Amino acid sequence: MTDTASLEFGFGTQIRKSPFFDATVRWGATDFSVYNHMYIPRSFGDPEQNFWNLVNDAILCDVAVERQVEISGKDAARFVQLLTPRNLSKCEVGQCKYALITNAAGGILNDPVLLKLEENRFWLSLADSDVLLWAQGVATHSGLEVSLCEPDVSPLQLQGPKSGDIMAALFGEQIRDLKYYWLEHFELDGIPLVISRTGWSSELGYELYLLDGAQGDALWEKLMAVGGPLGLKPGHTSSIRRIEGGMLSYHADMDAATNPFELGLDRLVDLEMPADFIGKEALRKIHQEGVTRCQVGLEIDGDRLSGPNTRFWPVSVSNTPIGKVTSAVYSPRLQKNIALAMVTADSATIGASVEVDIAGEVRTATVVPKPFYDPKKSITAGTA
Known about the structure:
CATH architecture of the largest domain: 2-Layer Sandwich
Structural class: alpha+beta
Number of strands: 21
Strand order of the largest sheet: 12-13-14-11-3-15
Distance between the termini: 40 Å
CATH topology of the largest domain: Gyrase A, domain 2
Largest sheet: 6 strands, mixed
CATH superfamily of the largest domain: Probable tRNA modification gtpase trme, domain 1
Shape: globular
């Protein structure tokens, strides 16, 4: 990395660089944003080409911004259950679970992937919010014996239909036996890793959790050296593919004022389990009374959108406001403008027509089912 690059991305030590930062700059990263107090690459060139690289071959993404909150100690399992409404009583060692972290009002503070490393040792692999601070506050008054920290763990995402071939070339054919949403410990030429069959792409993929930040550059180069001949490209998380797949982005599609039922995530809330969790009474009340708004899919008419939305677009019916578009993009595969929106419950009927105000240009849109592509998630699960 050149001195010029160092200056371009220099905001002092409060914004951290990942162990893969220098490698991503060498391999063509041109734009970064800040996520969990760390730089994340946002562009390696044309985002549409990045999408096609992902869905046709494979991409390698620096997602070290998915910081881990490690929870360990005698009461770790009880404490983790206190944080989430998802029933974890049957979660096995080596298993991963998509979970929600809720506050006392039932609002969503984060939607991490939970990794159960040992019987009383867990990671919460985080979206963009300070769950470590929240967990420390909860622990102070919980009366439970737990230890909390952010370990030296930095994930990479290897995603796309050829990711299995690349992983087999690196780790042997046995890696193909790793089940969807499960993890195992590996070493690659002395580099310690936890590998899970997960990812934020709606494609077949793996996440490689580096356990030694000093070896980030070496890991990136080993992956590209083996993967390059098999079609691997450096890349970034694809807004196109994640919206196609209906995957949620924290601070965009949900926040602390959003509850799971508004998102249709009822399966992640168990109000009948004996264990208590933060927000249980509030969520019970919301479930009984019903929601007043809900998330829907939209197809927006007109010319293709020039890129993802950078602000919430108002949604209305006959000039009456009913909600907002939270994520929108043009899908070159579907050849449609697609969006996720939060609207009033009585406006959420499939086939309903609404209006979307895009910076003063009002377009018609139609409420449609989500996700927009591969609704049974067979690609992600590896059963397609």
